[in-house]
Amino acid sequence: MGRCDGKVAIITGGASGMGAAGARMLVAEGAEVVIGDIQDELGRSLAAELGESARFVHLDVAQQDQWEAAVAFAVAEFGSLSVLVNNAGIANGALVQQFDMGQWQRAIDINLTGTFLGIRAASDALIASGRGSIINVSSIEGIRGTPWAHAYVATKWAVRGLTKSVAMELAPHNVRVNSVHPGLIKTPMTAGIPDDMIPIPLGRPGQPEEIGHWMVFLASDESSFATGAEYVVDGGTVQGVPHK
Asked: So what EC number does this one have (predicted)?
């Protein structure tokens, strides 16, 4: 018996990084997974690797019609939808005076609006499953502020708040909504950040699988009494460097 037997999940940004790790781990624990991403080749390759328990769908999370198609596809392929992992996101940065408004809007569209559109598109199916779970991947930047990363910080704070409001709305329908707040994780998106640039008390960046474990936990019934909560997984970064 797997921890996620009987679960059907959509995971966005699922073709690489934390999303791919989560997809692999959910399938390993018995779930059936729809990998949503704009990286078609990587997504199809991962779905083929995972076999009959996985499918790939092209999904630009900023597009409402693509969300509706992805949810319909998941239900058609696997019979239901019980888990939504809103993992897709982008990061960009510049000084306030130099921040390009196109960059600002793109971050809002993907990180925040994309999360909202996913919740809206999937809610009916999640309610119908009788035991739904929404997992929103925010960031430690949804808890603190960081120079240059203004759009990223703003959207990740907003995802944190959206998680809590939707959790209260969907609780009577037995759909749980929680957020995960990673610190520096070694993924393609963070490849250009030196390991020692951000002080991490545990002394190293995290690995994608270390966020995948939380996706599995929050997808499974092990977390059945958790909703509206936030889980910081950052090696102690938010707490600061320990005294010696």
From this structure: 1.1.1.47
Do the beta carbons of residue 235 and residue 185 sit within 8 Å?
A: no
Q: Give the count of beta carbons closer than 10 Å to the beta carbon of residue 163.
A: 25
Do the Cβ atoms of 201 and 239 come closer than 8 Å? yes
Nearest by Cα to 117 from 202, 216, 36: 36
Question: CA geometry: angle at 139 spanning 214 and 243, to 5°?
Answer: 90
Contact present, 234 and 144 (Cβ < 8 Å): no
Give the pLDDT confidence of 95-152 residue by residue, as tens digits: 888 888 999 999 999 999 999 999 999 999 999 999 999 999 999 999 998 888 999 9
Of 116, 152, 157, 214, the active-site residue reads 152
**Cα gap 25→47, rounded to integer Å:** 13
**Is the CA virtual torsion 51, 57, 60, 62 positive or negative?**
negative
Q: How far apart are CA 45 and CA 22, in angstroms?
A: 15
Please name the residue ranges forming H helices in the chain: 17-28, 40-50, 64-78, 101-107, 114-129, 150-170, 208-219
Neighbours of 226 (CB within 10 A): 15
In the residue annotation, 152 being an active-site residue is answered as: yes
